[in-house]
Write a structure and sequence with these properties.
By secondary structure, the chain is α/β, with parallel strands linked by helices. It folds into three domains: about 110 residues, NAD(P)-binding Rossmann-like Domain (Rossmann fold), CATH 3.40.50.720; about 190 residues, Rossmann fold, CATH 3.40.50; about 80 residues, ACT domain (Alpha-Beta Plaits). It has 13 helices and 16 strands. The chain starts with a strand and ends with a strand.
């Protein structure tokens, strides 16, 4: 029986993946093997010794101590792509909001209340203050061609925009999903200098923090419109406010309001609604739950942010799963320890991610705690599980 703890309200679509004969699930579980979380912060939480996995029902994992989990042999999953369509739709809305001054126009229209029959005349007289360009035929730069960036690029092509995409890590699978008319470029500066609209879809890392700043804005076309539906700290708030004041940036649409940008003319600050659809919540919950089930029952890892993806079909009744440091001679020592127990390895799968690695071994006989202990004794091994 596996115990699953929930730290937020999780869509029932996901919870139904935990079948009653194998799982107990709830927010009062005290010794969980897995945790399902959305936005709750886990940085101050004491991680129980029983914990094997954490699944974030969403893409960002800022609320999870990822490095601490890796050191303890706890797999952290996220759900990339599960909310991609929801975010894509809001980004497309952001393109229109950045151009047509819809938000300030609506706010102005509210001030006309009480003017009776004069409202129509006042509308015709005042609407000119809210004119803006059409997006058709304009150049859009998409920085980051992951699940969301690809959908945004393709949708913009369908709307008649000239789309440029930048992603130095673009995979073959991702490239095949891109509309043929998207121009994939190798230098992000081409987007800065050529595009009328720029939308950012990259993870927040030390390298990408404040990537939109005074220096990058200086390279952009005068009157550029910038969209940020990825992470707030990708854009330097002080620099974007200054550029809006100078008119070098015409509009900034963000899904991450901050005190610095709220109320600034030219800013459309949306209260983090990117994934706020029922469909998105359901998709994320189902994907997170399925990843936990596959890891607990089969040892398979897919979409982990701190350990490599290793997925292998079961070939025997007994599977040994080893989380270890990515250092020389580990596979030799692990396979040697298994052989010393008189076991034959029917199949092995292994991969690494930075300083950590993961190995799955299907063996021909059932093994007990002694086998796990002998492998765990190897210097560099972090956690060993035997699944039968």
């Amino acid at each position: 029986m596996y115990n699953i703890k929930t730290l937020n309200k999780i869509s029932p679509c996901g919870l139904t993946r935990f079948k009653g004969d194998k799982y107990t699930c709830g927010d009062e579980i005290e010794a969980p093997e897995a945790i399902l979380v959305r936005s709750a912060s886990m940085h101050e939480m004491e991680l129980p010794e029983s914990l094997l996995a954490i699944a974030r029902a969403g893409a960002g994992v800022n609320n999870i101590p990822v490095d601490k989990c890796a050191e303890a042999g706890i797999v952290v999953f996220n759900t990339p792509g599960a909310n991609a369509n929801a975010v894509k739709e809001l980004v497309i809305a952001g393109l229109f909001l950045s151009s047509r001054k819809v938000v300030p126009a609506i706010d102005w229209a509210k001030t006309l209340k009480g003017n009776g029959a004069e409202v129509g005349k006042m509308v015709e007289k005042g609407k000119g203050a809210f004119a803006g360009p059409e997006i058709m035929g304009k150049k859009l730069g998409v920085i980051g061609l992951g699940a969301i960036g690809i959908l945004v690029a393709n949708a913009a092509c369908a709307l008649g925009m000239e789309v440029y995409g930048y992603d130095p890590y673009l995979s073959v699978d991702a490239a095949l999903k891109l509309d043929n008319s998207v121009k994939h470029i190798s230098d992000v500066n081409e987007i800065y200098t050529d595009c009328d609209y720029i939308t950012v879809h990259v993870p927040l890392t030390p390298d990408t923090k404040n990537m939109i700043n005074e220096q990058s804005i200086a390279k952009m076309k005068n009157g550029v419109r910038i969209l940020n539906f990825s992470r707030g700290d990708l854009v330097n708030s002080a620099d974007i406010v200054e550029a809006l004041g100078k008119g070098t940036v015409a509009s900034y649409v963000t899904d991450f309001p901050s005190d610095e940008v709220i109320g600034v003319e030219g800013v459309v600050a949306i209260p983090h609604l990117g994934a706020s659809t029922q469909e998105s919540e359901d998709n994320c919950a189902v994907m997170a739950a399925n990843q936990i089930v596959d890891y607990l029952e089969n040892g398979n890892i897919k979409n982990s942010v701190n350990l490599p993806s290793v997925v292998a079909p079961r070939t025997t009744a007994c599977r040994i799963c080893v989380i270890h440091k990515n250092i020389p001679n580990m596979l030799t020592q692990i396979s040697g320890a298994v052989s010393a127990l008189g076991l034959n390895i029917e199949k092995m799968a292994n991969d690494s991610k930075k300083e950590y690695a993961y190995t799955i071994l299907d063996v021909d006989e059932l093994v007990g705690k002694d086998a796990a202990a002998s492998i765990l004794a190897i210097d560099g091994v972090i956690k060993v599980r035997v699944i039968v």
